[in-house]
């Protein structure tokens, strides 16, 4: 009985998220297209701990470095508002200025993910990727 209720709850939440994604709200917050700062990506671990640039304050930057892949980015709160749900092409870069966020990519190996200025470990090509962006403590 509990499993049936959990499945029903997931269907309801998924349906609400789909309706919100398709409603095309004009006030919807979303990604800002930009080019990432390359200097912070090459910093050593000791250098990356010190805030050196405004890029370190950006919660999330996603860059497609491999094949196009499906990506879903949603706000990690009770509403679960979907910010991005679609296929990103090679060279696409999206920047998100809010947190917390949940990120899922069909092919995590196609992405370079930077969270608060720190490049995340590269996923194997073809493997599903998942990341969580926490709210900044500063």
Structure explained in plain terms:
By secondary structure, the chain is an alpha+beta fold. The protein is about 20% helix and about 30% strand. The chain contains three helices and nine strands, in the order αβααββββββββ. It has helices at about 1-20, 40, 45-50, and strands at about 30-35, 60-65, 70-75, 80-90, 95, 100-105, 110-115, 120, 130-135. Strands 1-5-2-7-8 form a five-stranded antiparallel β-sheet, with no helix packed on it. A four-stranded antiparallel β-sheet has the order 4-3-6-9. β7 and β8 form a beta hairpin. The longest helix is centred in the N-terminal third of the chain and has 21 residues, at about 1-20. The relative contact order is 0.20. The model is unreliable at about 20-30 and about 35-50 (pLDDT under 50).
Rg over C-alpha atoms, rounded to the nearest angstrom: 16 Å
Run of helices and strands:
HEHHEEEEEEEE
- The helical percent reads 10-25%
- Cross-sheet strand order for the largest sheet: 1-5-2-7-8
Reported for the largest beta sheet, the result is: 5 strands, antiparallel
Strand content: 25-35%
**Number of helices, counting only DSSP H or I runs of 4 residues or more:** 3
Query: Which consecutive residue ranges, at least 5 long each, have pLDDT under 50?
Result: 22-28, 34-52
Distance between the termini: 44 Å
Count of extended strands: 9
Oligomer: single chain
Mean pLDDT: 76
Q: What's the overall geometry? A: globular
**Alpha-beta classification:** alpha+beta
């Amino acid at each position: 009985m509990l499993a049936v209720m959990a499945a029903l709850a997931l269907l309801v939440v998924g349906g609400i998220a789909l309706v919100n994604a398709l409603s095309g709200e004009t006030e919807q917050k979303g990604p800002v297209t930009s080019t990432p700062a390359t200097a912070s990506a090459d910093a050593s671990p000791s250098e990356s701990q010190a805030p050196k640039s405004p890029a370190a304050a950006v919660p999330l930057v996603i860059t497609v470095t491999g094949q196009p892949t499906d990506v879903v980015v949603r706000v990690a709160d009770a509403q679960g508002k979907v910010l991005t749900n679609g296929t990103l092409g090679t060279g696409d870069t999206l920047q998100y200025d809010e947190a917390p966020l949940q990120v899922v990519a069909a092919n995590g190996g196609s992405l370079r993910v930077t969270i608060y200025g720190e490049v995340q470990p590269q996923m194997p090509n073809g493997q599903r990727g998942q990341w969580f962006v926490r709210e900044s403590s500063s």
